Amino acid sequence: MVKNSDSSAPLSVIVPCFNEETVIAECLESVKFADELVLVDSFSTDRTLEIARRYTDRILQHEFWSHGAQNNWAIPQVKHDWVLIVDADERVTPALADEIRTLLRAPACDGYRMHRRNFFLNKEIRHGMWGEDSVLRLFRRDRGRYQERRVHSQVELAGRVGWCREAMTHHSYRSLDDYMRKIHRFSQGGALNMHEQGKHSSAWIMAAHSLARFLKSYIVKRGFLDGTEGLIIAFMEADHAFLKYAKLWELENSRARSPVPPSPAPPGVTR
Length: 271
Prior knowledge:
By secondary structure, this protein is of the alpha/beta class.
């Protein structure tokens, strides 16, 4: 790992992961500039840890409940005051790494947002729901905390927020199979979030949200400019919305049912 050789504040990078053997090397390679690299693993069963040990000996394992809860558990485990959270499917570009080092020489804020350049099937998506994306990932560890949500947790910062000029890259859903594997967790978590907030669902709500999501992604946000990939993403967004509200409906309408006791056997008959 490349150590801090300038006057910038030392930086800890946290990478949460689970079974990411196909992408983890590229991710860890992109954050070698950090003073400390901490991998927080949810008990991977593939080669993730074997690969990660080439880059760091700071590997922690912790049971996963949600993305936000995992990061909140990890943040107090690091050594340095400044932390950068990077998911396994994200990359810190050399230009962003240089900018982070420059910012940390004399930080004017308590945290920094950065844009994400999203890639789908190896193509950069510039429009639609994925065209305008930013995340708060660089912050003082005593000032930031993730929301306790099941999915899509954001950092809540007690302090001033600045912006990075450079962007990180996000290589989500490298195949449609990859999307299908992840959509259950995202839709289930979203449904549980809404259920806990007292929201409701119905056939009309499922259909309306699904259609609205497609139109917003493909028409309003001009996803059609991204070609076939833009159309696929618009349908994926609609699918996600439909599943989320369908699972919310299921939560509302499910009832614990005790098994029906068997009827008594006629005299002289054994079961």
